[in-house]
Amino acid sequence: MTAPVTLPDTAPLVLTRCRDLVRPALSRAVQRLHPWHAGMAAFSLGWSDVDGSPLPGPQGKGLRQALAVLGAEAAGGPGEDAVVGAVAVELIHTFSLLHDDIMDGDETRRQRPTVWKAYGTGPAVLAGDALFALAVQTLADAPGGYGAPAVRRLASALSDLVRGQAEDLLFESRPWTGTGAVRPQEYRSMAENKTGALLGCAAALGAELAGAPGGTADALDRAGRHLGVAFQAVDDLLGIWGDPAATGKPVHSDLRRRKKTFPVLAALASGHPAARRLDTLLSTGGPLGEEACRRAAGLVEDAGGRAAALAEAHENLASARDCLERVPLAPAAHEEILALLPFLVRRTG
Question: What is the pLDDT of residues 227-244, one digit of tens each?
Fold first, then answer.
């Protein structure tokens, strides 16, 4: 297996380069929306405040944009070939966040109000719908005859994304332990669909738009799906132990909501004595206060949930590397993709 030979600071530079390449086209696409929807999209993307004033702060990692650009470059084409795909995937990602925040009742994202909290639930739903439609239209207009196959791949990823979101919501009504409990393998499947499908689609679209053979695009898709499971496992860790200044969410936010995340499910399935105490704590009903959240976080860690989630992330990163090794890729882009993998596990927000 080829090891990444890039320097530790390469990943942020790669993300910035790809965001800068995609940003002009993404801005033009957003400007095609109704002004009301465009304002909400710009707010969600971190470009502006509610009143439309520009914001200089962080605007997201741009991981999906980077995977699309690197997918094209890995296939031997210029990154510009992937821009239309990167724009479409970023619009879909933004649409999914708007709707996801409503379903989860999340009031903050990236240390700012979520769109539904800032503009209202109905407007946020409508803006998400507009972004969805714009993404499909953008990709359908891809040059070179790639529009139809690109839309088919995006539609397949969207079907998986919605399936994953449905599974995540249905998990909420299932018991913590015993018959009907959510098993870690079920959670992996949900994470691959909800998070991994769009990451894999981004990389595969970049390759397809650069004229790569189907086998190359499929390998990049598979790698992105593994990356999604790893990304979700780290997200779950941050949802319990993350620094609010970096995550933009309160400490123990997932525990407070009694969300079934990988560390909790792995801890409950461990057979450790702390797992029984954790089950009792989570099954009491009613909201968890700060002291109960601290106790639950300690029990999850004692039962091995934190270590299991980190191991899950690393295992899926290794699987993503294996997928990349199975097809010939341009060396420079291959190395840049590999540089993103450890960066995503080390992230703090």
Answer: 999 999 999 999 899 888
Question: In the block, which residue shows the tokens 């057979």?
Answer: 271
Paired residues of 108 in beta bridges: 113
For the cut 50, the answer to whether the pLDDT of residue 108 exceeds it is: yes
CA distance 209 to 334: 17
Tell the residue number behind the tokens 């741009």, with chain if given.
62
Tokens of 102: 């409503």
**DSSP character string of 213-251:** -HHHHHHHHHHHHHHHHHHHHHHHHHHHH--HHHHSS-T
pTM comes to: 0.92
Tokens 């299932």 belong to 174
Amino acid at 47: W
CA distances from 67 to 27, 61, 190, 242 (A): 19, 11, 21, 25
Total residues belonging to the chain: 349
280-295 pLDDT, tens digit per residue, is 999 887 778 999 999 9
Give the C-alpha separation, 301 to 343, whole Å: 23
> CB–CB of 114/105 below 8 Å?
no
| Percent of the chain scoring above 90 in pLDDT | 80
**Measured between alpha carbons, how far is 49 from 117 in angstroms, rounded to an integer?**
13
Is the Cβ–Cβ distance between 248 and 255 less than 8 Å?
A: no
Q: How far apart are CA 144 and CA 298, in angstroms?
A: 55
Are 139 and 85 spatial neighbours (Cβ–Cβ below 8 Å)? yes
**128 close to 120: Cβ distance less than 8 angstroms:** no
Spell out the domains of the chain, with CATH numbers in brackets.
10-346 (1.10.600.10)
